Amino acid sequence: MRHTIVMTGASRGIGRAAAERILRRSPDTHLLVVARGASGARTAAELAAGGHAVSHVPADLGSLDSVRAAATAIRDRLDHGGLPPLRGFVGNAGVQYTDALTEGPDGFESTFTVNVLANHLFVRLLQDRFAPPARIVITTSDTHFGDLRHNLGMVPGPAWKAPDVLARVGAFPGPHTAAAGRTAYSTSKLAVIHLVHEYARRLPAGIGAVAHNPGFVPSTGLAREAGRVSRFAMRYVLPVVTLTPLATGRGAAGRHLADVVLGATPAPTGSYVDRDRVARSSEESYDPRREG
Length: 292
What we know:
The chain is α/β, with parallel strands linked by helices. It has a single domain, classed as Rossmann fold, CATH 3.40.50.720. Strands 3-2-1-4-5-6-7-8 form an 8-stranded mixed β-sheet, with helices on both faces. Helix 1 packs across helix 9.
C-alpha cells in the first residue's frame, strides 16, 4: 500500500544511504525529503532516479518558523491527496558546532534547535496526520553515555540542565570553546532519548517512537562546522577505524537506520536501538522527571 515517509538529513552520509535502501526495500514508499531549497530539490531528483516516488519540502532546520512552514505544507499535501498516508517520520539531520554560542533566528542555541526542537515540532504538527501503524525514528548518539567506551575520548559527556536553559546559548562553561560545543551535542542527543520516551507514553496506539544510535560513523559531514584539522581527521584519518568494532561504515549505518524505519529491526515504542538491535541507553536517560 502506498505510504509517505518524511525524512530530514537525507542528502548525505548515513541519511543518504538509508534513503536509498528504504526506496529499494519498500517500493510503495513516497519519500518526502526535508532540506534546504536547492539541496532538497537535487537530493529528491537523484533519489527519484529509476522511478522511485520522491519529493521535497524546503526547510532550514535551524529556524523553527521554517520548520513550522514545512510541516504545514506537508499537512496540506496530505489533506488534499497530494501525498499517500503518512506512515513515518525520520529525524536524521544533526549538527555539531565549535562552540555553544551559535544562535538561530528564533533566539535558540542552534545545536539544540536542529537536534531536538526541530524534530519535536515536526512530530507535534504531524502527529494527528499519522496513519497507524506508523513509526517515528530520531537519530541519537552513544556520546550521550559520556564515557570513554562510547565516545572514544572525543566528545565530553552530557551536562543536563532544564530544557529552557539548554535551548539558549551559553548553557555550558566556556561557551566559546569547542568542548562546550561538543557538550551541547552530547546533551542534545540525551534529550532526544528523553523525547522518545515521552512520545512512547503520549502518542496514540499504533504510532511508535524509536531512538536510533548509528555508532561512530566517520565521513558523514557532522564535523562540517569543525576546524580544519578536525575536518581533515574525520574525512581522511578516522575512516580507517571502521575496520575495527569501534566504528561503523556509512553504508552499514544507513542500512541499520533503514531497517529500523521499515520495521525490519524489531523495536517496541520507546526503544533505543544501538546500530541493529535494541539495547539499554545510559542510566541517566531513564529519568521520567525530565520528560514531562
